[in-house]
Amino acid sequence: MMPFLRRIWAFIVRDWRLELSYRMQFFLRVLSILIMVTTLFFVSKIFTGFADPRFTQWRDPLAAWLTGLAVLNYFMTGFSSLANAIRQEQVQGTLESVLMTPISVPTIIVASSAWDFVQATFFSFLYLLFGWLFFNVHYQGSFILALLFLVLTTVVLSCLGILSASFAMVFKRGDPFGIFLGAGSALFSGVFFPTQLINQYAGTSIGNISRILPPTYGLDGIRRVLIEGQGFAEVKEPFFMLMIFLVILLPFSLWVFNRAVRRAKREGSLIQY
Amino acid sequence: MVQSNSSAVAVSVNHLSQTYPVPFVRIKKLLRRKFKPPVEALRDVSFEIHAGEIFGLIGPNGAGKTTLIKIIATLIQPTAGRVSVQGSDTVTGDEDVRRNVGLAGAEERSFYWRLTAEQNLLFFARLHGLSNRISRRRTAELFELLELQDVSGRRFAELSTGNKQRLAVARAMLAQPRVLLLDEPTRSLDPIAAARMRSTIKSLAQTNNSTIFLTSHNLLEIEELCDRIAIISKGEIRALDTPQNLRTLHTAEERVTITLTGITTTDAEQALARSFEAGLFLVEQTTQSNEASVKFKRAGNDELLDRVLRILQQSGAVIRSVESERATLLDVLESYDRQ
Predict the structure, then answer these.
(1) Which burial class, exposed, middle or buried, applies to A176 when counting CB atoms under 10 A from its CB (0-12, 13-18, 19+)?
(2) Of A91, A189, B133, B334, which is most buried, counting CB atoms within 10 Å of its CB?
(3) B193 CB contacts (<8 Å, ≥6 apart)?
(4) Which chain B positions have a beta carbon within 8 Å of A98's beta carbon?
(5) Is residue B4's pLDDT more than 60?
(6) What is the pLDDT of residues B231-272, one digit of tens each?
(7) Helix (H) or strand (E) holding A168
């Protein structure tokens, strides 16, 4: 266990140091989150008292948006961090040097994303913190249950991230998973509006797209817990849906990633990009 | 070809072939797109490297040197054949192989340019599973050994090309691997630094019993350092032997130049013509007005030189110098490349 943790720590320290060499970026990102939360606060005031009573999670749109954005930020990290890390190592030419060390594929997967998760935790927390601190947004329910949903959804999305990284390893550019999930999640997963509205306005066939996206279940579960204060018995459905995604995607994505590494090694294209 | 002897085998390469496939060939065929044929980088390569040996690989650009070194380092999977390092297969036991192998490649882009030299080495030391304390100690030792102490706090981007090269060698040595793969280790070093690097390489093999696999375009360096040399050309090992034997095998002849004074070129020609058949010798005036040179070829250890010297001295010549020149590694390399 110690060498595994040591290696993950090595990646975190490396990325922290690289981040420190671009100090300005960090402060600008904090500022942009504050501006975004403030903007959403004023937009939410347009809808005060107009929320459709069917959508209980959306009575306070600001709370729903902030939860959506915080969670989406985390989900997207789970989804994109490994592919970005692999691609960055390819562009820098350091991928071979990392793969020359006695490091296993699962360690690379976890370690490459570790710093991104540290960052995402911080920035996601900022959305919720700024909402609570400056705009009187209140959360209720079990934070542990919400955290469980967050972790589970992130792991499921990380599996898709592993598939995306496999794609980057072999094809170098062009990532169908990124397009599908990146654009799809914001539109179909209920980040900015209830997914039921898609059924209502675009028909069931298009509305069903949201049902095949893991973030839909993650967001729904977290909002039910944090905004509506529901317990585990009431959020079993999205929880089990996420478990099904996990059971299918985890072994499949690891298998594909191993194959991708092997293929790149056969072609001698590890550092090509 | 010289193959294994009594000492333990550190690296074993058996019938290794590598053909780089055409990417997405089926799709290209389906779409009737034109594509270049697959590139055959290595063809049926076999040899063994013994523990503690310094083994050199020379060949022209594109001969397959880097492919071979990357296969040993587990970075490329061979199309056919097998490579084992300290008994572990590079495909099925790749993690074990990487524990035993350190690679200093010719690729400059393999470090994090915004991190310092020390931060880079510490990162890779931890990836090797070394504890924080050991990582720091080992990094300090290597900085001292490779004379990098003064630049340890500088960003990699700010290092000179020579220091970048030395840092690559330091990284390869971090986990004290049993086998060191050095791809042109003195490239970009000034002559003094290159000499120090050669001495470091020698001492590693002698004191640590490290096995060193070395590629270089500097043939003198290869000759000075290596116990055995393989010549690779167009993906095939053309010859493998000690530097001395390679030269001898290539051509047993040696070119001899005798410089003399005391007699004219005509006197020298006539004296030699009385004892030897015509056309064996080239007698010329040198740039010095009273000096002549006699040039001829002879087999390695025959008595021709002794006889020629005696005849010339008997004719009144004073011998100023005798130079003999055997085939250089460059001659050997060029001859195999021409084949």
Answers:
(1) exposed
(2) A189
(3) B147, B162, B166, B186
(4) 127
(5) no
(6) 998 899 988 999 888 877 766 677 889 999 999 899 999 999
(7) helix A143-171
Using 50, 70 and 90 to split pLDDT, how confident is the model at B3? very low
A39 conformational bin, left if phi > 0, alpha if psi -120 to 50, beta if neither = alpha
Q: pTM of whole model > 0.80?
A: no
Considering the domain B253-328, what is its CATH architecture?
A: 2-Layer Sandwich (3.30)
Of the CA atoms within 13 Å of residue B1, those in its CB half-sphere come to 15
Residue B64, beta-bridge partner list: none
ipTM: 0.74
Every domain of chain B and the residues it spans: 9-249, 253-328
- B interface toward A at CB cutoff 8 Å? 18, 20-21, 23, 41, 67, 70, 73-77, 79, 95-96, 98-99, 101, 103, 105, 107-115, 119, 122-124, 126-129, 131, 171
Mean pLDDT of A187-193: 83
Cβ separation B126–A7 shorter than 8 A: yes
Q: Name every chain A residue with its beta carbon within 8 A of the beta carbon of B20.
A: 267-268
Q: Does domain B9-249 have CATH number 3.40.50.300?
A: yes
* pLDDT tens for each residue of A52-81: 777 777 878 898 899 888 888 877 887 788
